[in-house]
Design a protein that fits this description.
The complex is a heterodimer of chains A (373) and B (578).
Chain A: E1 5-14, E2 22-32, E3 37-41, H1 48-56, E4 63-68, E5 71-72, E6 83-86, H2 98-108, H3 113-126, H4 130-135, H5 144-156, E7 162-166, H6 174-191, E8 194-199, H7 202-208, E9 211-216, E10 219-224, H8 226-231, H9 236-241, E11 246-256, E12 259-264, E13 267-272, E14 288-293, E15 298-301, E16 308-318, E17 323-329, E18 338-342, E19 354-359, E20 365-367
Parallel strand pairs in A: 3-8, 3-9, 6-7, 7-8
Antiparallel strand pairs in A: 1-2, 1-4, 4-5, 9-10, 11-12, 11-14, 12-13, 14-20, 15-19, 16-17, 16-19, 17-18
Chain B: H1 4-22, H2 26-53, H3 69-76, H4 78-111, H5 117-123, H6 126-129, H7 132-143, H8 148-157, H9 170-195, H10 198-206, H11 211-240, H12 243-248, H13 255-266, H14 269-295, H15 315-342, E1 345-347, E2 354-356, H16 359-362, H17 364-400, H18 405-417, H19 420-431, H20 443-468, H21 472-479, H22 484-512, H23 518-521, H24 529-538, H25 542-567, H26 570-577
Antiparallel strand pairs in B: 1-2
Helix pairs in contact in B: 2-14, 2-17, 2-19, 3-4, 4-9, 4-11, 4-15, 7-9, 7-15, 9-11, 9-26, 10-11, 11-14, 13-14, 13-19, 14-19, 17-18, 17-20, 17-22, 17-24, 18-20, 19-20, 20-22, 21-22, 22-25, 24-25
Classes of the chains: A alpha+beta (373), B mainly alpha (578).
């Protein structure tokens, strides 16, 4: 049966003895449960692909251990690890038919022909390509979505212990991408193989994964379910990477029971203590923090309201279900333009007008300023 | 802490040895072979050549003391000075003339509406496929003292008081090489003009530029790198060409024939080494100049979208273009035609060939059976070994990316720009006289020289194909459980096989006509067909030489044609490189 996959203090340094060592993974430690569909998410260069390739054995880690159950797999060469992998480019063999492509791993394992035929047919049914298998063309004659399915079938056919997916949807068009991510989840649940899915697309990760790990510059920032990451981001980076978060620069005015009072350019905001995502000692008066609010937590009004800040509307975009206002605030409050989603058009507000921005009560969160980008 | 450290260390050592034994060593064994070969038969000979160049004339490879005797000849000897001068004049004039012919021809075929473009392109590659020395001796028939073309031209030009010089000497060498090498410029210029993005020119037109201005400021700068590459290719070939000056140079020596003179006449390997070093220095200097000038003019194409190229349709330019192309093709293909006619006659002096006969062909099996066998045996064997060597080295540099990859690339590619005579000198300097491995006069030394000279063809072809090949194809195989060797056999080799084959075909066709390397290495038992042709021409047996050349041509043509049929249009591009 499947086992847990555990990373213990994994470090990866490229060009360790060279002039420009690159620290690609820093003290990565977490566990992926047996049968779980786990997403590695992060901006490019965050180390997610390095972690995946290290798991496969295509890269050797500089220190730490990778445990499959109680076996240390970090020194096992890749061809002995019994892992399945789907590459971003699919890496299908143009000189073989799709049958031979899928059968490759079985041929390597010297499986008898009858068994090969049975297993290939079985797995092609699982990925929904039984008709294509009858024609058995070269993979170059298939559509992108079909090639993707062949690649998945090829990785699954020899019952690997772990399935690795390296940005498997990046080469597909937007519509197919949405369809295939549901398919991948269906196939993973049908086989129950422990799966790691690497992507830089947060929407994709949230839709596919049982749990997600957000990486930044080789460090795991947070691990949790989609809901946990969206509603309880641990820091400013995660909050702005999983969905959009607007930040207001502010200073702590003081603590009043369960409420934190923050000064923002003259006005004052109140945030409940349980919404504080920073260390408690940051809440002493005078400390600089960030007040974070998602686009739907903010309100645009034409006239000044209590506890509001002034800004200028740059662009109004009607996006169907909601209207997005892009508002430029005073530089001391925010360096970046605010995105505010209103349920409908705000009467009398046009582009280039001055407006007032306020936060809905008790929804904003407090973040420490460190590691925002 | 101290107590713990020994056990910690032993754990580390244990896992290290474990790691060591789990590694897959088959790759190191396979990949070491080409490295050893290159070290012994390429780097070591190049080194000994360099050493011998600075030694006084002597037979043995033993360092008796530093001497500039060899180089001093370039100052004191009139023959050396003249050869150096001739080499410069010939290669520079040939480069300029090929540019003068090739650029307009490339532009015409790419940008002017005209019939039979594909035919013109195919015919325009033929002179390179044909051995250059064959072209040279047919020009003797056409433009020798009483050659038909010369008589005709003299009659045509007599009212102006101009006489065409005889083919022997500088004029002949320049004419011959120009007509042999213009295809490089033509094909590369054609490629550049045809693949340039027409939107760039249209944009200039919309901004108000006139035709000539567009040509000067947009079209030409963009094709300049291609033209630079073509010019270099021609120069390197012209300065290293042995066959043409040997056939029709007369008493005008150039560096490659001077090397031959030193070795064949005096067995002066050390002196020849000095000439070889000078020859290579000139080539290297030109290579550097070209790199330096072209690097300033390399551009990335920015726009992604393209539109159909607009062709010139004016009547005047269409007629001019067609006439120009036809004239060049006729002039450059005249030797092929001549040789076929000549092979059926005993002699051709004056207007018409005389004495129709089939004897030239009938005598081949009796007189040249050994040469035919040798040519095929040596070429096929060397091609096979080249394919293995070139593919493995390409695999090493592209996939294993060792620390010295750039150096490896440089050393494999070096013979690509080395004249054939220089390669022979390098091998002779390392493996003759008192050397530990004596190879003079053997089949082995010829096979090795062929391998050294032609491995770049396979190497280039395979390396290009490997860079196109996504490494994840091989990684996928590894992950699915295949060992390195299994992956290499089932994935890497099948995927680069087309590149190996096209590189090998190019190798085989050029080796069948190899003269400049073989001429310094052959012995009585290892004579090849080109050597036989060379000898026949020297003895004045033009009919016999022609018949042998036709046989060679037909074989080469069949191989290239068969290749074209199975691989599409790739061959033409392969020859551009070769």
């Amino acid at each position: 049966m499947s086992q847990n996959l555990t990373y213990e203090a994994v470090d990866k340094i490229y060009d360790e003895k060279g002039k420009n060592p690159v620290h690609a993974l820093k003290d990565v430690s977490f566990t992926i449960n047996a049968g779980e569909l786990f997403c590695l998410l992060g901006p490019s260069g965050c180390g997610k692909t390095t972690l995946l390739r290290s798991t496969a054995g295509l890269e050797t880690i500089s220190s730490g251990r990778m445990m499959y159950g109680d076996v240390d797999i970090s020194t096992i060469p890749p061809y002995k690890r019994n892992i399945g992998m789907v590459f971003q480019s699919f890496a299908l063999y143009p000189h073989m038919t799709i049958f031979e492509n899928v059968a490759y791993g079985l041929r390597v394992r010297k499986t008898p022909d009858a068994e090969v035929k049975r297993k290939v047919t079985e797995v092609m049914e699982l990925v929904g390509l039984q008709e294509e298998l009858k024609r058995n063309p070269s993979p170059t004659g298939l559509s992108g979505g079909q090639q993707q399915r062949v690649a998945i079938a090829r990785a699954l056919v020899y019952d690997p212990d772990i399935l690795l997916l390296d940005e498997p949807l990046a080469n597909l068009d937007a519509k197919l991408r949405r369809y295939m991510r549901a398919e991948i989840r269906r196939i993973q649940k049908a086989t129950n193989i422990t799966t790691i899915f690497v992507t830089h697309d947060q929407e994709e990760a949230m839709a596919v994964g049982d749990r997600l790990a957000v990486l930044k510059k080789g460090v795991v920032e947070q691990i949790g379910t989609s809901d946990e990451l969206y509603t309880q981001p641990r820091n400013a980076f995660v909050s702005n990477f999983i969905g959009k978060m607007n930040f207001l620069e502010s200073t702590i005015a003081g603590l009043d029971g369960d409420m934190v009072h923050c000064k923002i350019n003259g006005t004052e905001l109140v945030v409940p203590v349980e919404k504080c995502r920073c260390h408690m000692d940051r809440l002493a008066a005078g400390h600089e923090v960030l007040v974070g609010a998602r686009p739907e937590m903010l309100v645009v009004s034409k006239e000044p309201v209590a506890r509001s800040v002034r800004g200028t509307v740059k662009i109004i975009q009607h996006l169907g279900q909601f209207v997005r206002y892009e508002v430029d605030l005073d530089r001391t409050i925010s360096e970046t333009i605010f995105e505010i989603d209103m349920p409908g058009m705000v009467r009398g507000v046009h582009e280039h007008d001055d407006v007032y921005i306020s936060v809905k009560p008790d929804v904003a969160a407090l973040f420490s300023k460190e590691g925002r980008e | 802490m101290k107590k713990n450290s020994p056990s910690m260390e032993s754990i580390g050592a244990e896992s290290r040895t474990k790691r060591f034994f789990q590694k897959d060593f088959s790759q190191y064994l396979v990949l070491a072979v080409p490295m050893v070969f290159l070290a012994i038969f390429l780097l070591y000979p190049m080194f000994t050549t360099l050493v011998r160049a600075f030694m006084a004339p002597a037979d043995d490879l033993a360092f008796h003391g530093f001497s500039l005797e060899g180089f001093k000849q370039f100052v004191v000897s009139r023959l050396y000075r003249k050869s150096l001068y001739n080499s410069f004049v010939v290669s520079i004039s040939v480069t300029l003339l090929t540019l003068l012919i090739g650029i307009p021809m490339g532009y015409f075929v790419a940008r002017v509406k005209m019939p039979c473009k594909n035919l013109i392109l195919s015919l325009g590659i033929l002179p390179v496929i044909m051995p250059s020395f064959v072209g040279a001796f047919t020009w003797v028939i056409l433009m020798g003292r009483n050659g038909i073309v010369r008589v005709f031209l003299n009659w045509l030009l007599s009212p102006f008081g101009v006489t065409v010089p005889s083919i022997y000497g500088m004029f002949g060498m320049i004419l011959c090489m120009t007509l042999t090498y213009y295809p490089f410029v033509f094909q590369l210029a054609y490629g550049a003009f045809a693949s340039a993005n027409p939107l760039l020119e249209e944009a200039a037109m919309l901004m108000g530029a006139k035709k000539w201005r567009i040509m000067r400021t947009v079209t030409f700068p963009l094709v300049l790198p291609s033209l630079g590459a073509a010019a270099l290719l021609v120069f390197v070939r012209a300065i290293g060409n042995f066959g043409i000056p040997a056939m029709i140079g007369g008493d005008s020596y150039v560096l490659p024939t001077l090397i031959y003179f030193e070795v064949n006449g005096f067995w002066n390997i050390n002196g020849a080494s000095s000439i070889a070093v000078v020859n290579v220095l000139i080539t290297a200097l030109v290579l550097w100049l070209q790199k330096y000038m072209v690097s300033k003019h390399e551009y990335e194409t920015i726009s992604a979208s393209r539109s159909e190229m607009k062709l010139h349709e004016g009547k005047a330019i269409r007629i001019m273009a067609l006439v120009f192309c036809l004239l060049v093709l006729i002039a450059s293909l005249l030797p092929q035609l001549t040789i076929i006619i000549m092979s059926f006659f005993t002699k051709w002096v004056g207007l018409f060939p005389e004495g129709f006969t089939l004897q030239n062909y009938i005598r081949i099996p009796t007189y040249s059976h050994r040469e035919l066998f040798n040519s095929f045996y040596l070429s096929i064997l060397a091609t096979f070994l080249c394919a293995i060597l070139g593919s493995l080295v390409a695999y090493i540099t592209e996939r294993k990316k060792p620390k010295g990859a750039a150096l490896l690339d440089l050393s494999v590619m070096a013979p690509f720009i080395l004249p054939g005579t220089v390669v022979s000198i390098a091998l002779l300097s390392a493996f003759s006289g008192n050397s530990a491995i004596r190879l003079t006069g053997t089949y082995t030394i010829i096979v090795i020289s062929y391998m050294i000279r032609r491995t770049p063809y396979v190497y280039r072809s395979v390396a290009a194909s490997l860079t196109q090949l996504n490494p994840s194809l091989e990684e996928a195989s590894t992950i699915m459980g295949a060992s390195w060797f299994y992956t290499f056999r089932k994935v890497s080799v099948p995927l680069i096989l087309p590149a190996i084959i096209s590189g090998s075909i190019l190798t085989l066709t050029t080796l069948l006509q190899e003269l400049s390397t073989t001429i310094l290495l052959y012995s009585g038992k290892t004579r090849t067909v080109p050597i036989q042709i060379y000898g026949a021409v020297a003895d004045g047996k033009l009919g016999e030489a022609s018949a042998l050349s036709v046989v060679l041509l037909v074989v080469v043509f069949i191989i290239v044609y068969g290749m074209n049929r199975s691989q599409g249009n790739k061959m033409a591009s392969a020859f551009k490189m070769g």
